[in-house]
Amino acid sequence: MELKLVNENKLKIILTNEDMVQLDINPEEMDYDNTGTKRIFWDILDKAKHQIGFDAGAEKLFVQVYPDKNGGCLMYVTKDAQKNNPYIYEKKYKSKLYTGVKKKRVLYMFEDSEILLEACYQLNLTGYKGKSDIFTDETKYYLYIDDNKETSVELLSEYGILINNPLFEFYLYEHAQKIISSEAVKIFSEMLKKT
To answer: Which of 14, 16, 18, 82 has CB atoms 3.0–4.6 Å from 2's, for a disulfide?
Structure first.
């Protein structure tokens, strides 16, 4: 079992086939209503808390499980980050959140270039062809894409934080530097292939 902290709100769990046999679980049959599954899941989260400091506590969690071809599985556990996320902007006169910085544009923030590189590589594997730009403000990296399809948003959420604030665009153009224009996902993913 491998536990990786993607960011303060997201945990990546890699279970091998041997782990799955030892835990007596199957990704296709995982059911959170099952007491055994709950126990195993919370045992894993307890290990994550002690080993890498990921504390789910009483947080609302979003769990994604992806079986792998070798009999293991990849799990992403995400805490409900929206309640403490300063990048979320809610209009006071409507009860819904914006879906991105502009209609049809989605903006994500990444802790470092390696995480952004992996996100771009994975997005490129899905066949993403939309416009994409990469910015940096010397502390974080930002991917601004022209596509808000659910698969893109779901995939990018595994690596970065959605900036759901329409005013953040002004910050980008004022304080950040655009490092790749138009085909950033394609260009950045090709960099990973070469390494």
So the answer is: 14
Q: 151: pLDDT confidence band, cut at 50, 70 and 90?
A: low
164-180 pLDDT tens trace: 777 788 888 888 899 98
Contacts of 111 (CB under 8 A, 6+ apart): 7, 140, 141, 160
Q: Where are the domains of the chain?
A: 2-82, 86-194
CATH number for the domain formed by residue range(s) 86-194: 3.30.70.1950
Angle formed at CA 61 by CA 166 and CA 125, multiple of 5 degrees: 65
Element (H, E) at 175: helix 168-175
Alpha-helical (H) ranges within 3-92 are 17-23, 35-52
H/E stretch holding 172 reads helix 168-175
Q: What is the pTM of this model?
A: 0.50
